[in-house]
Design a protein that fits this description.
- By secondary structure, this protein is of the alpha/beta class.
- It folds into 2 domains: 238 residues, Pectate Lyase C-like, CATH 2.160.20; 35 residues, no CATH class.
- Helix content is 14%, strand content 34%.
- It is built from 4 helices and 22 strands.
- Strands 3, 4, 6, 7, 9, 10, 12, 13, 15, 17, 19, 20, 21 and 22 form a 14-stranded mixed sheet that branches. An 8-stranded parallel sheet has the order 1-2-5-8-11-14-16-18, covered by helices on one side.
- The relative contact order is 0.07.
- The structure holds calcium ion.
- Calcium ion binds next to loops.
């Protein structure tokens, strides 16, 4: 009994007494991690883990996992995976997660999602849930053949009736659609897309901040980057959207305005000079892709083209 101040011993006794009165250990409310794998983890399926989880818990997939059908996420949990782990949908629809209103605050992060067969549907559907985060995932379908207009409609995510949806740092490729962004608000930033018919389709009442996204594999470009449907009620600035997202094209279907930046310099491409006169009196400076250093280079380009 040396060196222990009386006050500390008194305090320790008080804590024990409080815990005894409450009848539960003080750690009961702390966030827990629940592991998922076919055998040997806390739970064998995502659905079982979500069922057992409480808001604030993290569900971690530890090895490649096949799933058949969708898991309903109706709690503010985080679903993630160890690096390199793939979750493969084996059902007849790609829908792997359905985030319901009770799942407001949920996070789906760090997953690789794909499907065994070419099936339609969105891998993540967010319906009526607020403040959901989709971050750092890689989502792709099997390779599709033929023109994109005939591709099976699979999508990384869809949303409807959401506030504060955050979609950041994801890699979305080889899908008919990256995000089908319907009613609601949020942020789409820092995602990389390629090989889709449309990276981000903005449907009715989609009011999102879209910046810092970029195009991936230039050998497999998407047909369109950001498409604002005619029914959309948010006034998007097409040129500003194009400038804010690296190498993504933009198309406002209500006005027909587009932003095309084939050389990815952040400036909309122009029609090329149709004749030498268009190069003169400073005209050369207004062209983009091709761009010119001076009038002489512009004229030479026209002459070489015949
Ligand atoms: Ca350009």
């Amino acid at each position: 009994m040396t060196g222990v101040p009386v006050s500390k011993r008194v305090l320790a006794g008080a804590v024990v007494t409080a815990a005894a009165v409450l009848g539960t250990p003080s750690v009961a409310s702390a966030a827990e991690e629940l592991t998922v794998c076919t055998a040997g983890c806390d739970h064998p399926t995502l659905a079982a883990a979500v069922s057992a989880a409480s808001a604030g818990d993290t569900i971690r997939v530890t090895e490649d996992l096949t799933v058949a059908g969708a898991t309903t996420v109706g709690k503010a949990v985080t679903i993630t995976a160890d690096a390199g782990v793939t979750v493969t949908q084996t059902g007849t629809n790609a829908r792997t997660f359905t985030v319901t209103p009770a799942g407001s605050g949920a996070t789906i992060s760090g997953l690789e999602l794909t499907s065994a067969d070419l099936v339609r549907g969105e891998f993540i559907g967010v319906n009526g849930a607020d403040d959901v985060t989709i971050s750092g995932n890689t989502v792709h379908g099997p390779v599709q053949q033929g023109p994109m207009s005939g591709w099976v409609t699979n999508r990384a995510w869809t949303n409807n009736d959401v506030d504060g949806l955050t979609v950041t740092g994801n890699t979305l490729h080889t899908l008919r659609t990256g995000g089908y962004v319907d009613g609601g608000s949020g942020v789409i930033a820092g995602n990389v897309t390629w090989n889709t018919k449309g990276d981000y389709l903005l449907g009715e009442q989609a009011d999102f901040e879209i910046a810092g996204n970029s195009a991936g594999d230039p050998s497999l470009p998407s047909e369109w980057g950001i498409v604002v449907f005619a029914v959309n009620e948010t006034p998007y600035d097409v040129q500003a959207l194009g400038a804010a997202n690296d190498c993504l094209t933009v198309w406002d279907q209500a006005t027909g305005e587009t932003f095309i930046d084939g050389d990815c310099d952040g400036t909309a491409d122009t029609a090329p000079p149709a004749g030498k006169d268009e190069c003169k009196q400073g005209g050369w400076a207004g062209f983009n892709n091709p761009s010119f250093r001076n009038q002489g280079q512009c004229v030479s380009w026209v002459v070489a083209r015949g």
